[in-house]
Fold this protein.
Amino acid sequence: NAGVTQTPKFQVLKTGQSMTLQCAQDMNHNSMYWYRQDPGMGLRLIYYSASEGTTDKGEVPNGYNVSRLNKREFSLRLESAAPSQTSVYFCASSEATRARNQPQHFGDGTRLSIL
Amino acid sequence: AQKITQTQPGMFVQEKEAVTLDCTYDTSDPSYGLFWYKQPSSGEMIFLIYQGSYDQQNATEGRYSLNFQKARKSANLVISASQLGDSAMYFCAMREAFTNAGKSTFGDGTTLTVKP
């Protein structure tokens, strides 16, 4: 019963370095999401994907790119990391039909520090 | 645009007492869903309870209930018989029914501390 799996759990980068955060879900959900959570704050949507092959910008997309590799996997890439991107990153998935009562299922998060 | 407001940054409650966490929302969509999530200090996000805009009755899940007042656009979470393990951050979220890809908007959260 893995649900949503994120890797890595922790990462420290230097300014300007690049990295990719990986996310995979085994619930056969259509939609996947990437959020960031800054200290003491709620979740802000970075990018989302309604289905395999589609991606859309969320509230705070600048500095990030995403790839929906297949139905299971949705990766988030930081091309040139900046200290302002220090945050906890959550991946989530949901069954996005017109069934309104489907919550999002979250991974355990990636704690990313950029020096 | 959707907006979720949680006006209580922090709340304290005595163990075994009930507590209400406030959530107000703003939307022009007549069809939407409201969710509450719990985030313990370990960091994971846990789904607690759901209320649909057309649901006639307030949602309940064990010790959690949702006080849904549609005209006031409020969806307050009530936790009965608080336990020490309820200490966590709580987020209210809303999803408009036909929003592309089921996107949700989250509030900034309320930190609940249960005192022994």
